[in-house]
UniProtKB/TrEMBL annotation:
Taxonomy, superkingdom: Eukaryota
InterPro entries: HORMA_dom, HORMA_dom_sf, Mad2-like
Protein name: Unplaced genomic scaffold supercont1.22, whole genome shotgun sequence
Assigned protein family: Belongs to the MAD2 family.
A Gene Ontology term for the protein's cellular component: zeta DNA polymerase complex
Domain HORMA: 1-203
Amino acid sequence: MTPCPKVEISLHTILCIRQIYPPTTFTRRRAHGVPVYQSRHPTVRSYISQVIASVGKEINEGRLKRMTVVIKSVLTGLPVERMIFDIGYLSGLDGRKDIGLTGAPNADELGLMLRGFLIKLSSLDGQLLDNNEECTFAIIIETNDDLAPSSNTTEDTGPWVPALVKDTLRPSQKEDAECPEKHEPLLSVKAIETGVIDVCLSSPT
């Protein structure tokens, strides 16, 4: 089971609860019995759908290591917080998808895990400081091989471009003053371990 639908729901919900766009631009939905949010703006929905499609290609190939939602101040352009999705894979499958795994959750158990994940995500807003300034966001991915995403082609720029140094967790060069050498302590929000593809969401405290 691909984690992409859950990640898509999470992106919409993060943009709402962290006040990136006005609450009136979101509609309430339910996923796994949990209230979540979905943007009603066609441009935002289209952008998120494109991101998920590109991310899905990297996950299917076992290349995605991390996806980070960077929330930035419009005034300064600097990050104010990050939502980090760490991805882990079961090695040795060689592209085979329909394999029974001892101890892997069944459909009902997986549904409960997804429900718990969304409950924790929805409650995250109460654990973080309010964003009292106008913010925007960027989505950054890291691949396991540190190469360009496979969804990029040599004929065009592709959907992904190199991330700004100040948006990343690690500096490319220590002398670069725009990027701090250490990131904030992380709050582990929730992890889902399916036995094949594991997802862990963290946020700076």
